[in-house]
## 1
Amino acid sequence: MSKQFQFKLVLLGESAVGKSSLVLRFVKDQFDDYRESTIGAAFLTQTVALEDGTSVKFEIWDTAGQERYKSSAPMYYRNANCAVVVYDITQSASLEKARSWIRELQRQADPSIIIALCGNKSDLAVRRQVSQEEAKKYAEEEGLMWGETSAKSGEGVNEIFTEIAKKLPKTAPPSARAGGARTGAARTGVDLNKQATATGGQNEPCSC
Amino acid sequence: MREADVWRNVSEAEFDNAMEGMEKLVMNRLYDYTFTPQVARMIPPRPITSDDLERDRVLSQRIALFGWVEPHHLDIPEGPGFEGFLMFAQQELLKINHYKAPRDKLICILNSCKVIFGLIRHMHKEEGADSFIPILICVVLKANPDHLLSNVEFINRFRNPTKLQSEAGYYLSSLMGAVSFIETMDHTSLSNITQEEFERNVEEAIQSLPRTSPPTPSPGTPVVEGPNSPGASSALPPPSSHTGEESAQPLSLPVPTQAFSEDARRLFQKTSDTISKPLSAIGRLLAEAEESLASLAPLDFAKESDSPSSSRPQTPGSDAQHAAQQRAPYKPRVRRVPSPAVPQAPHDWDGMPDETSSRPRPPPPPTNRPLAIGPSQQPRAQAPRMQLLVPELQTPSRTPQRTPHISRAPSPSLDLAGVQAEIDRVHENATNASRETLKQIFPTMDVEVMELVLEANGGDLGRSIEALLEMSSGT
């Protein structure tokens, strides 16, 4: 069995840039192990197999792109290992919005978060308002990954997620990584597992 | 726990089940000491170490100020069936106070989200957070569950942390996001409304609040927690019945046994074992149902109110299906609920020791009883809301008793054959619509299973949804 790592990926961007379609394309295409999520498409998972024999399982957290829900975004990107910030190449305003998300992530999110800037709707290149050069230059300045995708045709979709998967650090034990996914400031109770973890690590049985 | 003899050699899956069972057992026993609203009711009093109750009160009051918020204020497109889905989502969320174990409470939240996604599919909208979050906010606003924050905090504190990741974590976070939106919303966070309208609506809501409410903040500003007045906890609504442990108690569905194969029966038995009654939600549901009733066109209502006396169509997938989709699929269920005309069987409620809800319930149709054979839990099976109707069990002899309903029909002198045909048509439409709705909520579920469940529940959509939610959450 290959080694699997699990990461939390948060999806940001204005509404109507095709965030959800992008992820649906990624999750439903190509891979055989797609399973209908149990509740709905706002939370999806997908596993990417890498050439080195490891595999990366993404837990994809979709966010509402409308401006009015901006204040709840921190609940979603908290403890995220990576973020995909999506804009629409036919709407230059959506890149502005993406920039503001990126600034927020750089300020507020985990400093080690990997951010990918993603220009969606590359199938509509005739109506392009954002040039590849402009977006790429910005991404390089900010140290972001960058790519263009078409959720409609599927072009570039798997590539960008695979690139992210390659870039994620495969150092922490898989379960510990996943464990970071949800430990909010909200948790103030007693963690009964703490002692067991401290003394023996994740695989030691709890002696309670 | 793993080292104990009992569990040393069991498989991971079995151990996981054991852990879940243990969590439930322990938390059921400790509920009075751990769930803040319960702690507040302890005699002798115990110190309350969190501000949950204050936050509950503030949130609940804030939500009460926004009862007028409609879906279009959040840019939610409405369509046929919208209200019904919304009502089911509220109803699932409201069950949260009926359970004690953190897992069960969490499942109520997840089920509510699942119904919302059913609605999104029903509306053919793109599935994703952009369409999900506004509806979730709408559901929280309309449902206004008691002690929502206490419940969420309780889940955060006492649910096994490894079970609060991934999907469950996502939807719990979304609920918190919805709450924080409500806590801070003003006219700029809503669509299709001016500042004046917003303030006027809030002002009106303040006027209609009960007198016990503390001073309300001016519109447009977030509610700030006031000083913890000594009377705060006594001003809380009276304790609702927390009989939340009964999910372990079996419940038998009134399935006409001869109609089902052994397999199907076992399936239902399994389902029944895990369902428990959301009694505390019923009163609210009744009130809402009455509202919906009032809003139905009289003619429409009259037609439908008769339909149960017709024979239920058994053939699936007729051409009428598509047309049926255009109808509001929930009417058949809604119209039953407040029926005052159904006669009460005097001993129907005997043998329900844990039934302590004081809210009004419609009595079950007595004609069901002879057929709900066998299991000693029969009275539970006849619990209120689920009861609504089992049309094929209606006997002609009931018709006179239903006179008050029938009198609403526009013209009692219509020729009977014509009425019957109309009734059959309407009813068939309703059944097909229900079938479509189930498909939307459970896209991966086997169609035949849904058919069976729908049939077993006498065509009652709400009941079928619950049964299917239970079945799918178990897998």
## 2
Amino acid sequence: MKQLLTGNEAVARGAWEAGVLYASGYPGTPSTEILENLIKYSGVYSEWAPNEKVALESVIGASFAGARSLAAMKHVGLNVAADPLFTLSYTGVNGGLVIISADDPGLHSSQDEQDNRHYARSARVAMLEPSDSQEAKDFMKTAFALSEKYDMPILYRMTTRVCHSKSIVDISEGRTEMPLIPYEKKDKFNPIPEISKKLHSKVERNIKALEEYSNSTELNYIEWGSKKTGIIAAGAAFQYAKEVFGDNASYLKLGFTYPLPMEKIKGFAKEVDELIVVEELDPVMEIEIKAAGIKCTGKDKIPREGELNPDILREALLSTKHQTIDVSDIQTAKRPPVLCAGCPHRGFFQELGKLKDIITVSDIGCYGLAPKDIAICMGGGFSVAHGAQKVFSLSESSKRCVGIMGDSTFFHSGMTSMLEAVYNNSSVLLVVLDNRITGMTGHQQNPGSGFNLKEEPTNLTNIEEVAKALGVKHIRVINPLDLKEVHETLQWGLSFTDPALIITRYPCALKKYSTADKSEFGVLQSICRVDAEKCIGCKACVKTGCPAILFDSTTKKASIDTTQCTGCTVCAQVCPKNAIIKEER
Amino acid sequence: MEEVKNILLCGVGGQGTILASKILANALVDAGFDVKMSEIHGMSQRGGSVFTQVRYGKKVYSPIIGQGSADILVSFEAMEALRYVSNLAKDGHIVVNDYRIQTATTASGKEGYPENIMETLKKKANTYVLDAAAIATKVGTAKSMNVVLLGALAKLMKLEDLNWDAAIAACVKPQFIDINREAFKAGMNAVS
């Protein structure tokens, strides 16, 4: 049976077929749908962990206990999980262990476009790279088998274009149940220096053995076409190369990409006139191939930045372009993503934006769409703000730093960030924008939402109680849609010389309310309407950035799109003429 | 069919481009084509510009359509059609919904929303302007304007004979199947 699946759907299917028993991860584009799909299959335990590090650690525990286990995360998530990864490389596994790294060349939804193929090399683990959905499914079985055979975690590198593109997958195979590999106490699970020295030798031996595997596996195959040009490619880049060159080149298509099949590459290079390495982002393969004394080209022509596509390759390698319609006279307005109509973050930023001498230090989430000065990484809002505040305070600057994170990012790595500010005591103002869900990635449960990945009720962790336990002395919980309350609480929070915490608590406008949400927040049943008689066209409402608010430049009147409006009333509260009225829907 | 055909659907997050492309891809797979479809999730859900690329033929490699390569551009919103014109092949068709959605910058007056969009598009390529909301309302609900546009696309790509009834039934809730089938037919008729 054939079905059109995304890479993420296919990889979940493949893991299920391979008999995976345990899966954990933290949501992040483009990896999120992997676990969301895996949870639909029976016989697999899947969970959202608070962050990627603990996700991988729990997966390591599951593997040692004997289960085939899977961790899934986005590229920057693997940075968070890098600590256990490097030791896991030494300990090896019991049940097969696969780590999916979903990279984001082109930064469709990320703060950087790091190339995680480097991790395979530095952590000394084998790597597979599927180039479409069929491979995303099929390679999973190979990955688990290799992990068990070579006593090694397998890095499974996907990219946005493989994760989110749909292609046809044969799904006639079912699941192979894998019995647990019995747990036995072993030295390798306890990597003290004396043991680790031996383990490192084992790792190098296994990598050597995998070089042989890489040279012989059908995952690395040659497709002969014209021998004038030979192309080495993996992942999405292979598809682009095929698109551009068709039969006018020969291909060494790599599915098993670390260690590289250097003997196969040497043999291929001998057969072709010119060897080109086509890879997205860094010249990872190219450098190793050149170091092996094989002549090739690659990054001298193909850009190192951004996502590749057939156009880029065509221009870089063939110096040709498709003819296009002349668009030099066309101008369009930008359409960046914005905070949704009714977004509870809007009220908070409306008031924060009025304050002078404020440095807004945010992290990763929807609220990053609001104005901010600084953002580095998930959970970084408080600690980056703390460091900046210390320097401003020491230099007697009047600048005040406001550190911002969301509920999910607070639990991800914000708790230690908060502790840094408390322990080393600065006058930073801490804000958790608690919208009761992980918003940006499309509504995943988290430790503060009261539900798990399976949408079953679970233990709920309360942010203010955590903050109290961490030593924050001044804490207020407010409704961010009440602008007066937001304004007063900001003044209150900035009056201290030690860290104060504001928690703005209101569900995401797109969230499906739980019973607890309904009883705590009620259900928004109203909409807002502009009284055109009273509207003076001052655009105060438009400036809140709500996409439901329209402005007619001929009549100079605002109006509200009732299909989008949630009745949050932020616009009504900023209107100087009380021209916006709340009504029952 | 040896030749690979390229379809580009664009619009604004929340307009139903993804559902329309899902129905399209389903019908194409059912007809025996190799199909690849690419869309970007994530930030684009937040009211940003969105586009889905569908490619079909005997064998498809790249999931992405390049510049000057789309056989048809179906835009769910007026200005978004302008944004993606450069992806259209010289002899390609445009189906554009006569429907405007302001952006954050045009609503606040920082940028102007382009004027005379339909005239500009007509100068660039063979353009079909549809008031998809009105057509959809006539058959039942404005919400099915995405399927009206899909009907127009099917007609212009000569894909009328695909099993659209089954593809629609596979992708929408049972209570909306009939209304969407009507919307699809109305879309086909709008460009004949």
